[in-house]
Specification:
Layout (H helix, E strand, L loop, with lengths): L1 H15 L1 H26 L3 E5 L4 E4 L9 E3 L2 E3 L3 E10 L5 E2 L3 E8 L5 E9 L8 E3 L7 E5 L2 E2 L4 E9 L7 E6 L7 E2 L7 H31 L3 H6 L4 H23 L7
Length: 264
């Protein structure tokens, strides 16, 4: 009977102090929201574009070379560079032609596009990637497809009259996706790396949030919560526990930002 009363006193002491309630609130809300947003992000359409940072300079202007490039009978006097862009659907909802609200257009910073080819498709004859060459001269290339289901996509090679440092951007609107952007950092090499990072952030986040809650519970268990947390000796422990709890929540939210690997 006394043991039951003691447990009730601990719980009462824990919840009678705002810091105890705050630590529990941070933990529960962080876990719930991280799981929700992670799953919600995967349920939507999620067009991803990755610009390979490896460049192939075909011709370097100003250097003596036996190699020259002509385009439609005219010699190209600037640098000529080849780059590869990967495009795929990282969401679970398919992206069909009628889901493209504004055309997806790749821009090479105004540098003329000399040639563009689809090097690889995840499912040939199904995706059917199409490249619009009508505005190549102004550095714009339209991209469309029949359907991109989960992990469907293609790799496109661009050859343009310009150096490797020109800004390559993308514009367009996909139904259910507010913004399009190009991923410039190298994606993970495998699904194993992707799952490993998911496990790392979720596990570390839950451990840190759990530590925060356990700390405040322990304080309540060994004395009056309000009295102990007012003591100067307990202030560092309280601050540290709150900071660890917040870092744990941020780790859980990092799950949403983890980019999946190239699926093909």
């Amino acid at each position: 009977m006394k043991e039951n009363n003691r447990k009730r006193d601990i719980v009462k002491s824990f919840f009678s102090n705002p810091l105890g309630i705050l630590s529990l609130f941070i933990g529960l809300i962080g876990i719930v929201l991280a799981i929700y947003f992670h799953n919600a992000a995967r349920e939507n359409r999620k067009l991803r574009l990755y610009l390979n940072q490896a460049t192939n300079i075909i011709v370097k202007s100003g250097e003596t070379s036996n190699l020259s490039v002509s385009f439609k009978g005219e010699r190209v006097t600037s640098d000529v560079t080849a780059r590869q862009v990967a495009i795929w659907n990282a969401g679970k909802k398919s992206i069909k032609l009628n889901n493209i609200l504004k055309p997806v257009v790749l821009n090479t910073g105004g540098c003329q596009i000399l040639e563009a080819n689809v090097m690889k498709e995840s499912r040939e004859g199904i995706v059917n990637t199409k490249l619009d060459a009508s505005e190549f001269e102004s550095g714009n290339m339209g991209i469309s497809w029949d359907i991109l289901e989960e992990d469907d996509g293609c790799i496109i090679q661009l050859i343009y009259a310009g150096g490797p440092d020109i800004p390559i951007e993308v514009k367009g609107v996909i139904e259910g996706q507010k913004n399009l952007s190009i991923i410039r950092s190298a994606p993970r090499k495998s699904k194993f790396d992707y799952r490993r990072d998911q496990l790392l952030f979720s596990t570390s986040g839950c451990i840190m949030v759990g530590f925060c809650i356990f700390t405040f519970y322990s304080i309540a268990k060994h004395g009056d919560f309000a009295t102990i947390t007012k003591a100067k000796s307990a202030i560092p422990a309280v601050i540290m526990a709150l900071m660890i709890g917040i870092v744990g929540v941020l780790s859980l939210f990092q799950l949403v930002k983890i980019e999946p690997p190239l699926p093909f």
